[in-house]
Amino acid sequence: MLEEEYREKLISAGFTNIEIVRTRTYEFSQEQADVLLSELSEPERKSLSGSLVSAFIRAKKPTDKLVVDTDYTIRTARESDLSAIDKLLSDSGLTNVGVRENLSNFLVAECEDIVGVIGIEFAGHGVMLRSMAISQELRKRGIGAALFNRCLEIARAAGSKDAYLLTNTAEKFVVRWGFHKIQRSEIPNELIQSSMLNNFCPTSSSCMKLEL
After folding, report:
1. What is the CATH number of domain 73-211?
2. Where are the domains of the chain?
3. Residues 114-134: pLDDT tens digits?
4. SS3 letters for the chain?
């Protein structure tokens, strides 16, 4: 595994402050390669000589929850945030369709950089929560829950009756707020069309609803 691939796996697992220090580089003689790498062809053996290393690895896995308005702030997204939002969504495998057109209905979490995003779109008496993404290094630190809570506060203050979402990954996350599964056909058509998600979310996505 390449060093950068190993680093990415550590980041995905929630580790930060990653330090990788090479301690030894292995170069094989022809005899050593014949014994240790006998299953490989001679060109493959030669390519590995000098590319195998031992390394000292140090990393930290944060457990403390971050505090909104102390460690980071939540605010309405601005046009200057679009590139950061696009990257967060792309890194999470989410579409950016409709983000620019509805930017005023998106919230971002800012901690020097943009580290989280969520969208809330209104139609009729319902709201669609969408496009929640958190920076890999700061996941499971409470930012997602804070963004989610802020959206629900906004929806209730606006007099919305029901909140909906489509998800492939967050079903277990949202049930803590009381969301339950429904059929896609139960989402008001005006809401799903206004969010432009109907044509971009897989039919396998779980449809969830919360009575506000």
Report:
1. 3.40.630.30
2. 3-60, 73-211
3. 999 999 999 989 999 999 999
4. CCHHHHHHHHHHCCCEEEEEEEEEEECCCHHHHHHHCCCCCHHHHHHHCCCEEEEEEEEECCCCCCCECCCEEEEECCHHHHHHHHHHHHHCCCCCCCCCCCHHHEEEEEECEEEEEEEEEEECCEEEEEEEEECHHHCCCCHHHHHHHHHHHHHHHCCCCEEEEEECCCHHHHHHHCCEEECHHHCCHHHHHHCCCCCCCCCCCEEEEEEC
